[in-house]
Amino acid sequence: MTTTIAPRAAATAVALHGVSRSYGRGSTAVRAVDQVDVEFRRGTWTAVMGPSGSGKSTLLHLAAGLERADSGRVLLGDTDITAARDEELTALRRTRIGFVFQSFNLIGSLTAEQNVALPLRLARRRPGRSEVRAALADVGLADRARHRPRELSGGQQQRVAITRAMVTRPEVLFADEPTGALDSTSARTVLDLLRAMADNGQSIVMVTHDPAAAARADGVLFLRDGRLVDHVTGASAREVADRLVDLEH
Ligand SMILES: Nc1ncnc2c1ncn2[C@@H]1O[C@H](COP(=O)(O)OP(=O)(O)OP(=O)(O)O)[C@@H](O)[C@H]1O
């Protein structure tokens, strides 16, 4: 009989070890992320919060391989992405990572289904229309497949953007303020979708300013001045808001 022991890294979707990133030089240098150690566990949804300029977006970009660390190591599963060459990083971002933005970043001249099919085309896969339609139907947009972004509400556009990010079945979905441009009803629809995805085992890392959004995640990390200062699980929106106010003073 063979016993398979899962490697330790299998439980970790993304890990940052001693990661730092500065911008500028000399007296104007800013240490946006300062010696951060964190592990994002597979199948969990983590919110990243902190005052403005605390390094949230930089941390997200480093974890997603959109920016390179000055020092330290970033591991996606057991792949050290800090050691990856540019073309490896590009390939990895196309296949193993999904990213959604506050401003949706859909291509205005393409329909919803063409936007969703794009990552498959970039990964040189011929997208089947039924696969794309089914993915849109899963997020309640079966009847919007032929619409262009300007013909969709903000919440619908963000659901298309999430579907596009997920179509390659990435190991981790990164989201930078995914509800920042939405009214509260649309925001709730998007958060419900992210919650359902996490409940299905999707790893999600999300930057947000909204305590109500953070409270939907499994855990919340708090940054201040580029450093990780706290981690809470099971906190209510009020508790998250209170913690944030503490950090801003
Ligand atoms: N490309 C850049 N060039 C120079 N400085 C930068 C750059 N990107 C970020 N910074 C600086 O790094 C620090 C962290 O920025 P970052 O955008 O990561 O913070 P944040 O917590 O996401 O902020 P916000 O909540 O306002 O979006 C800030 O002081 C910012 O001015």
UniProtKB/TrEMBL annotation:
Residues 14-248 form the ABC transporter domain. This is Putative ABC transporter ATP-binding protein. Keywords: ATP-binding, Nucleotide-binding, Transport. GO terms for cellular component: membrane protein complex; plasma membrane. InterPro entries: AAA+_ATPase (IPR003593), ABC_transporter-like_ATP-bd (IPR003439), ABC_transpr_LolD-like (IPR015854), MacB-like_ATP-bd (IPR017911), P-loop_NTPase (IPR027417). SUPFAM superfamilies: P-loop containing nucleoside triphosphate hydrolases. Transmembrane segments: none annotated. The keyword Transport applies. It comes from Actinoplanes friuliensis DSM 7358. GO terms for molecular function: ATP binding; ATP hydrolysis activity; transmembrane transporter activity. The keyword Ubl conjugation does not apply.
